[in-house]
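Many introductory courses stop at the sequence. We go one step further.
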Amino acid sequence: MNSTALAEAAFGDTPGCWPLPAANTPAQLWCRAVAAAGLGHYSCARADLAVLRRRQPAAALASLSLSTEASLLRQLGGHRLAAGWDGRALALARSAGDGPLALEAGVDAVVGLAADALGVGRLAASARLLERAEEMMDGAEGMPPRLAIRLAWVSAELAMASGRGDDAVAHARRGVDFAEEALPALRRHRVKSEVVLAAALCCAGSIDLSRGVADAALTDTEAYGLLPLRWALACLLADINSATLTSQQVSAIRDDCAAVITRRGGRWSHR
């Protein structure tokens, strides 16, 4: 029962589930950490990941736990620090054999490294890593849909950083399509895909469209309790204005989210 509930919270249709059931196995601990992180419960997520690694210091799940640690840092600006975790994740994935979970962990780590490189301005390195991730996935059977979605997100972010607004929108829409196909699973990924699309539309100069996507996604983040994504959307809407909320309301949402994230163990970084 706990396995199903935790998997649904992490990668299914109930991302707003809180409190989460107890976790008893490494796989359950990883799902619990992913679900907690999506809600902004960073301290809880890190605690579960640490327990996972104590119980299983090597193999694919340990690699996935390191990639998840990296994502927690990256969400709050710690791209340089995240790269160390993703690098260790890739090393563990390489030593975990050639099974499906090891390949999943390897792709996760490489996509994470691409996002880390992007965050510190190493755009060419990010592009090479994304190409590598695509090559790893080509021809592989049974890969979780979330990997293709993550690849689309980072590809869109790279296009935005490179000033290629139209390409960014194309990648972001691909992420939305992949997430839509996965529903009712990957509900949180569906919401984040809209966040990425809103940012891409803004980059492409389609401000009205961006505003509409962001406003709708903001409602979803409230419904599912996705605090980190809610904060990101409020930051975007603070720049482009909301069609339904005043600037004061948007600022209040942004500041409230930041405060709660800090109380829940979020570690802000500008490096």
